[in-house]
Design a protein that fits this description.
10 strands; alpha/beta
């Protein structure tokens, strides 16, 4: 049983990747973080000593605070956050406990530069279908919940990236890091590069995305369904950002199916009254 105002590693692992996951705030000292410069998926770094200054941005929400060992820094910051109107808990055992459990962590070195508001900024081609919705979902759920996505004309992606400090993804070009590699789609590459492969549901979801995005519906039966839903969304929305918001729900549902419901079946007959029972 977790201590008061604390959350276990196991419980947090079930929340990450879902839309109900609280804000994750890493307050390790620079020295502690340098010893293992990786983040729990979706976490943002904040200086513990300045909590009174940045706490208001989380007011009215929920947060989980992470330090190295789950002691004074996370407990103190969580208390400050509660004072500021945040439902805050500390992660039991801190980052060391998470790493010790063998769970996925995101290498800080893989993260793109952040803007002045602390957000990663990404740019890709307009009129997304599969990868260009799947990748933003992955980033917002497992890497940076505040990430900004810019959809522009294909010919302008690299220019926009240079002028606006954005990171290009899912476009061709020798200088583009975040794109297809061989038979892998960009979603596959992000799962691998961000160190998220220990999330088994993500690995299966990556296969579905790859099948839908690279004309390989033979990989898994769900690939054809994802492609159909993706093409339908692209025709329902003319605004790419509105399509992205709708797509977030689609991928939330697919992730939960991959995690919790792959073995569940549904039969119309099973819901019918038994013989001889009155309706």
């Amino acid at each position: 049983m977790s201590a008061i105002n604390s959350i276990s590693v196991e419980k947090l692992a079930r929340l990450i990747g879902t839309p109900k996951c609280p804000a994750l705030i890493d307050v390790q000292t620079p020295e502690d973080f340098a010893a293992d410069p990786r983040l729990i998926p979706g976490a943002v770094r904040r200086p513990f000593a300045e909590v009174a200054d940045w706490a208001p941005e989380f007011a009215g929400g929920a947060a989980i605070v992470i330090c190295q060992k789950g002691r004074k820094l996370s407990q103190g910051v969580a208390a400050w956050l509660r004072h500021a109107g945040v439902e805050a808990e500390a992660l039991e055992g801190g980052a060391l406990a998470w790493a010790g459990a063998g769970l996925s962590m995101v290498p800080e070195a893989k993260l793109p530069p952040r803007d002045r508001q602390g957000r990663t900024v990404w740019v890709t081609r307009a009129r997304p279908k599969v990868d260009r919705i799947a990748c933003p979902w992955l980033i917002r759920r497992f890497v940076d919940p505040n990430a900004v996505f810019l959809f522009v004309a294909p010919s302008e992606v690299e220019g926009v990236a240079e002028r606006f400090g954005a990171t290009a993804f899912d476009v061709e070009g020798e200088s583009i890091f975040w794109s297809h590699r061989g038979e892998l789609c960009t979603f596959d590459v992000m799962v691998e590069e961000f160190g998220l492969g220990k999330f088994a549901p993500l690995r299966h979801l990556a296969t579905i995305v790859r099948g839908a995005d690279t004309a390989r519906p033979d990989l898994v039966p769900e690939a054809a369904g994802l492609l159909a839903a993706s093409l339908g969304l692209s025709r329902m929305y003319t605004d790419d950002l509105e399509q992205l918001e709708a797509g977030m729900l689609l991928y939330d549902a697919l992730y939960r199916w991959c995690r919790d419901a792959r073995d569940e079946t549904h039969s119309w007959v099973s819901h019918q009254p038994r013989a001889g029972r009155r309706a």
